[in-house]
Amino acid sequence: MITYRENSPPAPLIRMRGVYLLLVAALCLCTAQAQTSLDLVDKLPPYLMSAQLLNNGHFSISTQYTGTPKTLIYKEDGTGNRPVNYTSHIHIKVDNTLFQLPFEVNPATDFPPPVNPLKIIALFRDTVASRPRINARMLALMPGNDSIVVVFTMEPVARPSGGFIRLSVDVQNKGRAQRNVGVLMLVDTKIGNNDRAPIATAFGYSAVETQYTQAVAPGVPDFWLALEGTPLAPGLAARGNLREEGLIVPDIFLFGNWVDDPANNVPGLFRVQFDERTPSNLAYTDSAILLLWRQQQMASGLRKLLAATEIGVSDSLSVDSGDGSGGGGGGGGNGDFLGIAGTGTCLTTDTLSETPCGIAPYHPYQPDT
To answer: Any idea of the CA torsion for 330, 336, 339, 340, to the nearest 10 degrees?
Structure first.
């Protein structure tokens, strides 16, 4: 059960990114022919998860779980005179050098390309543990021609809690010197048509920018949710796993505005280079998730998985509201349970029955409390 402590429903938002994307097209000569990609399509029935990886390193995830194709991660599909381009990315920091995907902006000029672009060497497919994967191999070139090889991977993963696409970053130090390497991952959430998707975590719902740090209590939550609708009428919910077998818990988890907030002089999360951003504690109007895995030492020749997280779908959610005097509680039904406390109160729950996962007739979308 998740306890929501705020319940102000967000309003619809129409994203305005055309200018930036058109500049990308002009500067990078991105023809339709050059915009090749790899796809995973309708994996893990009934979740029908799809993943797309462009040859510029950007990525997106969608689902047909509800019977209609819906995005979980925002993308431009090439319509409306805008080039095919996605707005989620990874950054690699090697010692004091920050590497970005080649279509991102230079923070000094606000135009692409960045100062230190990752060189996309190849897109390729492989299969590991019977799971089909799509990958982008990239190169970070350091002074003296030392290099760091980066492989970004997307693959379907089935769990008792549902179907997910795992996003991971594998790094190998091919240079002669020891390096300190860290990873940033930005996920631009758009659930169905809602680009202002409300964000909740295992710790509750928040309508303002919020950050959790693994080294500071309560630590990073086990998961996050992004809603197609509102906290009171969630609709389709994307679920991001942060703490599961095979994943690497990020050191920092921050959610807030992808876009700039000029009225409050707050830059959008898409501008974050590495760890310089702190939460504004202001309302977000264009939600996004930022994950950071801090730098760690890598000896010459060492290869290591530095980042791994997952995004999938949660069934339609049922919601119960507290009355403001003593909270509320409940459970059961055909979907995950969300409780919304009354103002100034907390929810109370009673355990009615418990069916451990893995024992029939356990179902991940029929909660036991």
So the answer is: -150
Task: Tell me the β-bridge partners of 4.
Answer: 340
Residues in the chain: 369
**Can you give the three-state secondary structure of 171-239, one letter per residue?**
EEECCCCCEEEEEEEEECECECCECCCCEEECCEEECECEEEECCCCCCCCCEEEEECCECCECCCEEE
Q: Going by C-beta distance under 8 Å and a sequence separation of 6 or more, which residues neighbour residue 151?
A: 135, 136, 137, 138, 169, 170, 171
Q: Helix H segments across the chain?
A: 18-28
Predicted structure pTM score: 0.79
Which residues share a beta bridge with 254?
Answer: 211, 290
DSSP characters for 277-310? Answer: -----SB-SSEEEEEEEEEEEE-TT-EEEEEEEE
Q: How far is CA 93 from CA 65, 171, 214, in A?
A: 36, 11, 19
From the CB of residue 178, how many other CB atoms can be counted at a distance below 10 Å? 12
User: For residue 334, how many C-alpha atoms fall within 13 Å in the half-sphere facing its CB?
Assistant: 1
* 181-216 confidence digits (pLDDT tens): 999 999 999 999 999 999 999 998 999 999 999 999
| Token pair of 352 as six digits | 């009615």
Place of tokens 């039904």: 333
